[in-house]
Amino acid sequence: MTAHTHKSPLIVHRAHPLNAEPPGNLLQQSFLTPQQHFFVRTHGSIPEIDPSRYRLLLTGLVQQPRAFSLDELRSLAPARTVPVTLECAGNRRTEIMAVKPLGGEVPWGAGAISTANWLGIPLREVLRAVGVQANARYVAFTGLDEAPFAGETVHFGSSITLGKALSQDVLLAYEMNDEPLTPEHGFPLRLIVPGYIGARSVKWLGEITLQHHPSTNPYQTRDYKLFPSEVTAQTADWSRGKTLESLVLNAVITTPQAGETVAAGRVQVRGYAISGEEAPVERVELSVDDGQTWKTATIVERAGPYAWCFWELSLSLPPGDRQLIVRAWDTSKHTQPEDVRNLWNFKGYMNNACHRVTIHLV
Amino acid sequence: MTAHTHKSPLIVHRAHPLNAEPPGNLLQQSFLTPQQHFFVRTHGSIPEIDPSRYRLLLTGLVQQPRAFSLDELRSLAPARTVPVTLECAGNRRTEIMAVKPLGGEVPWGAGAISTANWLGIPLREVLRAVGVQANARYVAFTGLDEAPFAGETVHFGSSITLGKALSQDVLLAYEMNDEPLTPEHGFPLRLIVPGYIGARSVKWLGEITLQHHPSTNPYQTRDYKLFPSEVTAQTADWSRGKTLESLVLNAVITTPQAGETVAAGRVQVRGYAISGEEAPVERVELSVDDGQTWKTATIVERAGPYAWCFWELSLSLPPGDRQLIVRAWDTSKHTQPEDVRNLWNFKGYMNNACHRVTIHLV
């Protein structure tokens, strides 16, 4: 069914539902991630959809409920391209799991993140076409997949505020990097919510519902929330968890990889950095002496407020084992927490502790 | 000249120019800081201004330069009250100085921060009255004080972007907490820039200049910038420093104080937390085991997006020495760096490492 079951260069954490990420060296090969290297997060089936029969339903607090064909959507407004990085809220979860085990979550490394140029119709043009009632506050999205949740079968769903939905950069996307979406990336239509965790960018979009309250889909109400470290799966009161929206400031070393053996002398270190939408990445720094001193890396590529940046720095390193540490700063002068041990939460979300990679120099 | 030279409850770091902060227990007494307890940051003289002869000049890229009397300003538009916390970029500098010495900076503790209800005329109403030319990008502000800078005598000055200046909450303030400003707080008129470091809220405002570029005042171009840790006063290229604007996420324990002897058993811990304007404080946590576990404090008072919040937590603590650590999280799920040793910069700005207080329980 997918290109990933055989000869895929991705690390497949689970085949059913498919969850796979590119290794760091592959991630770093290209600022825009080719579709076949783009990380895949699915919660259930990958639906096979006949585009000629596909309809997107607009329902709820709208002036006029409607069902749009793909051609009707495309004729609504000019298409727009936005470079957006999608990052799973569980990116870098393995580091959290190493602190203390988690139950049953996908063990993402630092590759649950990828970037594409997304082409689509701005969501707000579709909302304009159907008319939004004055009491609508949230826009809920439902996928056409079938996903298990606590013993039930549901469609994946989520919601964002109407304010966010009216941003010109929230897209109903049908192409990434000039190619039609493949089935695992949401063919024929997916939502793209720039600056938010990947789970808000619902794939295989079937229905958009204007409503007064956030989505009641269990993937919104009982998943993708942040809890304090003293809360466990057994004690969690989901109504008190904090809904994840914006991405956090983060930076990762992709080259060299942890445990790699590298020739001593000049070592070229590379990686990515990302921030939420409020404040772009301003500076990336590396330390090879456990944070006592830091060197500023060069940001070599970036693309607007919603995409990662690529950075690199050439270091001179003697033989021996050496830990490299990276951190980013944003334009609001925030930097990252140092120690993942202080960020444990039972769902393993939002790990933005300074990334550490130990290499062997010979 | 000021109430602080005798019997002031403030800690006076310097008398000329006056720089003084309230101790933590005083800071925590009242959510709105009384004017006589409000921290004072000055760079030079405290001008004595006759309000009847005072004029505010509007110059530069305006349709019509003008000089406003105080009465004329007040008649321009309805006054507006906004609760705003002012925080010096050097708040908590002593912790940075303990890592490695700095040259000649004011050794602020954690009290270079205070909150007031500010009453004034929105700056944008004044800009509307004079008309802004289409090529204006920045609004520069000049004070009527005389301050030394690198051997010269200058007026303190700063600038903000025109976009920020057009926020309805940027005020030309003449009252704080229902009292006229005292001389040390900017009488008769000061700027209030919510969410930004205190240095942008220019006191004794004499002139507002619309221009295409940021202020060239040395307090803007060669001060209040953040540099990487490898840069020193000798090696700094000021054009490469990053201009400080937004406040960073921060939290401080004000009660008990460091070194205090406290009865073992139930200990009531109190403090403040603050964030920049983008994302409010969502959660405050305390650890008494060096970050291994955290308990969530109760936020007991807050007032809009630009003011600190007060929090408290009752802990049960056995006899012995104990380090309390606090950290805040914002609604974007950012938290703070742990270790001030990783935040050293030669001007000693923006210390938002987790605040640590060691107490003696008996």
From TrEMBL, chains A, B:
CDD domains xref list: SO_family_Moco_dimer
Q: Which cofactor does it need?
A: Mo-molybdopterin
Q: Which GO terms describe its molecular function?
A: heme binding; molybdenum ion binding; molybdopterin cofactor binding; sulfite oxidase activity
What keywords does the record list, in alphabetical order?
Metal-binding, Molybdenum, Oxidoreductase
Its GO biological process annotations read: sulfur compound metabolic process
Entry's InterPro entries?
Ig_E-set, MoCF_OxRdtse_dimer, Mopterin_OxRdtase_euk, OxRdtase_Mopterin-bd_dom, OxRdtase_Mopterin-bd_sf
* Top-level taxon in the UniProt lineage: Bacteria
Q: Which residues form the Oxidoreductase molybdopterin-binding domain?
A: 43-218
Pfam families in UniProt: Mo-co_dimer (PF03404), Oxidored_molyb (PF00174)
Q: Where is the Moybdenum cofactor oxidoreductase dimerisation domain?
A: 246-360
What name is this protein filed under? Answer: Sulfite oxidase
Organism of provenance: Thermosporothrix hazakensis
Taxonomic placement: Bacteria, Bacillati, Chloroflexota, Ktedonobacteria, Ktedonobacterales
